[in-house]
Known about the structure:
By secondary structure, the chain is mainly alpha-helical. It has two domains: 42-331, no CATH class; 350-444, Flavocytochrome B2, Chain A, domain 1. The protein contains 18 helices and six strands. A four-stranded mixed beta sheet has the order 3-6-5-4. A two-stranded antiparallel sheet has the order 1-2. Strand 4 (371-374) and strand 5 form a beta hairpin.
Amino acid sequence: MPSHQPVAGELTVDPQYVSQPSAMASTAEPNRNSKYDPKKPHITDLPITRQNWYKHVNWLNVFLIVGIPMMGCVAAFWTPLRWQTALWAVIYYFWTGLGITAGYHRLWAHKSYSAALPLKIFLAAVGGGAVEGSIRWWSRDHRAHHRYTDTQKDPYSVRKGLMYSHIGWMVMKQNPKRIGRTDITDLNEDAVVVWQHRHYLKVVFFMGLIFPTLVAGLGWGDWVGGFIYGGILRIFFVQQATFCVNSLAHWLGDQPFDDRNSPRDHVVTALVTLGEGYHNFHHEFPSDYRNAIQWHQYDPTKWCIWLWSKLGLAYNLKQFRSNEIEKGRVQQLQKKLDQKRAKLDWGVPLDQLPVIEWDDYVEQVSNGRGLIAVAGVVHDVTDFINEHPGGRSLIKSGLGKDVTAMFNGGVYLHSNAAHNLLSTMRVGVIRGGCEVEIWKRAQRENKDVQHVKDDAGNPIIRAGNQITKVQQPIVSASAA
């Protein structure tokens, strides 16, 4: 009876029998661009030329991210900075930064905790003041980034270049059909998210520019300074800090949990991004409300969420179990050890050594070859005789003999380093039923041989477990 299972060349899921989801949001969802037509060729499908280059540029983002900060930098030359305004700019920088890190990122993109309505409104408002897009748009792209990290479907993949992941993806248009799809049903059902998305431009201009100007103007009469320093330049710095999560956090630092993708941990990135710098941990455990798990690591976003939970504004703070976190750390450490181990010379594997007769072993020594036998393994020490720390006469006295007892305490209890060095000199195994030959035969017959192996299948030789190491020192009268 023929099989109905798919074979090579066949698709398990045939597209003609599956309805394809529309790239447009449903009528109940807030479309950012109602004129978007998924059937029309996107500008990114065309090469950039002198005639169409301007069509590839996202001019709204260029104005918000590049244009406004440039105007602010120029105006700052003629605008004195008062200490009250400087202090307010720093405070509002942290507010709007938290709107992104604690709000857009950890609350809405990853649902790592739940927030009461007043906290939601606050985070949506100050997050809009950072001028980085609406919650819905930002979180949708960020979920795609996590699901398709470092692939073509990653909206700001660092594989496309450090500057692209930092700012290029924002100022150049992207084809929405190329960005990986994600589920944002929960965001479309959140009244705060939907309201902020529909009124995004109003939120941006009020919270980004008007509000900080009003505070400085009404507070101490510095209307222009509030607009320039509390508004424009503060927007620039908070944007660049957030963009570092997409670029610097995928380029600088260590990878203590997983190195298959680009995210990395580094304290510098954490300092710049209000605690978002422990990015390798975050990509492994994205629903954890923390980025930093050690007490000494800098993560003010985590501290704020914890404080809000004590005030009743946040609840259901999610944490991965310490056991799972440590398993990931240990597995990565083991992987790095395996990679280092693979680069070292551990000698010819025992199962690849030839089996030789005792008489042949003795004959080769009588013909001038410097061979010794330790625990059934033959080692060629010809080039080592003159370098032997114990002198030439001592090592020569063991040539052509079984020096297992001498090597393991009969004359001198050799160090772990000596056993490792000896392993690089082995050339054969003595026939005669010794443990090494039995081990080799068991390997060939696929019998149960207890041997720990690394990820590449190579045996792991731990200190004190070398084949030449005899656990109990053998008593010997002399080296003669």
